[in-house]
Predict the structure.
Amino acid sequence: MEIARLGRVLGTSLASGVVCALLSGCYSLAAVIHDPPQPPGTPQAITDGHLVGTWRDEAGGSVTFAASGAFAAKKICGDFADWAGDGPKVSVAQSKTGNGTWKTMTWTPPNESVPKTEVTLLFSNSEMSAEYETGGTSRSPKLWVYMGDLDDYDLCTLTRQSSLSSPAG
């Protein structure tokens, strides 16, 4: 009888210990997981004319958009996809220098009422491209994209510089 009682006590203690360890582990995991950085402001619909000029990222990279649809980038942050071969491959580089053409697409996502603009860069002499979403405010639009694995929460944000910047040719 004493052995049976000891077995029940040990079983209860063991079960309690496992539950405690699981809860503790879940709490530790929850403490490590954090919210991703939020894109700037709200989605924005911007015209091609408002895009023309120089935009800079937090690390000093820049891209200059010309009204002709050309761009020149210098160490710009982004999430670059290489379309060579049999499908897109994400580049390991998180900055890129080069030139090419740009285009925009403004659309309203399903079940939303606010349109947004997406900007696509197509690099010359390669199959490399990058896409940025627009955010911020109507007075201060931003271009942004998450870089790499979404779980890494690396956010690239570009801010438009003053209109004194010279456009790419």
